[in-house]
Amino acid sequence: MLSVILAQMQTDHEPRDAGNLAKLTKEADALLDDLLAMRTRMALATPDETFLSLKLGVFQIWFGRKEALLETVRHLFNWAEQRSDDADAMEHAALAWCLSPTNDRSLAPRALELAQHAADLARGPWYEAWYQRTLGLAYYRLGNCAAAESALDRAAEAANDFEASRQQFKRPLQTAVHFIRSMIRFSGGDYAKARELLAEGKAEMKPLPKDRRQIFESATAFDDVMVWLAYKEAEALLDRPADLRR
Q: How many domains does the chain have?
């Protein structure tokens, strides 16, 4: 239903259609609220399925639901910290915090500890790639750029060993790594390399949707949004005026 409304909105551009466009926009927003509420109920009903909570968190970041995101992050942290042998739960919790630059900074040490523990438990290239990506992002959030670069190197190298159907995930992972590296280089003052990495990543990623609500039309929405979040953050950082650069 949401995709039908969004398609109709694409055709209502004339002034005479303004009233209908406003009505469709309101309906689309209401459906989005319902969809996110449904995903929240599913995540809370199955706390052991931490991937559902991570997906919810990614979409909450995308749609700017900061308060709801904080609740999701805390839910993931509380679950993961009680299960020291569940590497997926730990990585999912850490990533949910790391993906947003505006998340609660008081949770930073816990996020890094979860990411480190998950990386220690990685088994094989598939898990090594994702866990090291998250660890690299966690290190970047805490300002340890050297450790972040090392973790991202390990993530990119492990992704080269993806096999069979998992090979389709190599591109989104390594594209996101490009954007994280871009931010790291920018933070270190290497602005030229930062822009080069940003351009390389942008050339590899799917185009941004015209309407952010269109993401649910794609079966790869989760992976696409994680790449787009990294791109948008890197682009915004590199576009900062010179006097605001750190």
A: 2
Check residue 8 and give its pLDDT.
Answer: 41
Q: Which two tokens stand for residue 245?
A: 């650069």
- pLDDT at position 28 is 85
Determine the pLDDT at residue 217. Answer: 85
Domain hosting residue 14, numbered range:
1-45
pLDDT band for position 3 (50/70/90)? low
Task: Give me the count of residues in the chain.
Answer: 246
Whose tokens are 């995903």? That residue is 39
Q: Residues 61, 141: one domain? A: yes
For the chain, the maximum distance between any two Cα atoms, rounded to a whole number of angstroms, is 60
The amino acid occupying position 49 is E
DSSP 166-228: GGGGHHHHHHHHHHHHHHHHHHTT-HHHHHHHHHHHHHHSPPPPSSGGGGGGSTTHHHHHHHH
In the structure encoding, which two tokens stand for residue 152, read together? 């991202």
What's the rounded Cα separation, in Å, for the pair 8 and 184?
Answer: 41
Q: Is 84 helix (H, G, I), strand (E, B) or coil?
A: coil
d(CA 113, CA 100): 17
